[in-house]
Predict the structure.
Amino acid sequence: VNRTGFVMSHRVSALDLLTAQHDELERLIEALEAAGDGGARHTRFVALADALSLHAALEESIFYPWLYAHERGVLSIESPEVHLALRRLLADMTAISVEGPIFEATLAILKREVRRHARDEEEGRLFREVRDIASSGELDTLGAVLAFFTKEH
Amino acid sequence: MDEDQGDALELLTEQHDLVDALIEMVESSDDDEEKAAAFRELANQLAAHAAMEERLFYPFVLAKQTEPLLRQSTEEHLAVKRVLADLIELDLDDPQFAAKLAVMKEELRHHEHDEEEDVLFPIVRRMASKEELLALGGEMLALFEAILGTEPSDRVALETDQAAPL
């Protein structure tokens, strides 16, 4: 487990790794929702913001370009737009108190958007088509690259 | 629509349906001019609708029970205005346009239907009388039309820093 809480293993398919990161983001959001006082809440928010930023950066700098090189037609161009919405929400939350009602309202939207992003990729056509175009060996190799950068973060 | 036709909630639901229809038009039109006109109308409708809700509807229905919902609603308006401001800057045939429109459509679907119509409106129906909602509907429609006449989409980019106050 690295600093962001993403669990590393030696041999993992890229899609399993990304799915595990989506699950971890949802877990971090639930931990933040459950946090009581300001100190713990702030720590959990920073952990969430780090993990989300890392996940978005990995997808954008490694996964989507790989996909684009592999098969242009498959690339979901909606995901980067959802990442943009998520970053805007994180930026709003960074600028305000972690205990106010605005933080809570923004967190509720962030949670929904993270779930939607995960569902869009995992259950939508993106992951399905990736399985069609890439062999499990290729997905393991991509998984190793993603795992490496997750660990180096 | 005449002022005496609907109450505040019926007016909002009609506006939501019109926005949905305009999005469909923008998505499905293969005529550049028609697409551009539908998008301009969509942008103005959305901007005027959000301003009307923020200035009249939310203050009217603000109560202890509705406050968390309304906070979320104003934050959702902010998210929609940001995507809308992006869309206004893009060419209609830019591939990012379709992606951003899809993201905005999903945000609106949740905000308009799952939250306002399904959760907020039933609470408001219990809080306010039919007469009050009719009077409010008239005021809202008048404000909406006044705002709509001023090309409100031109000002969306100025409202992307923070959510409207409650």
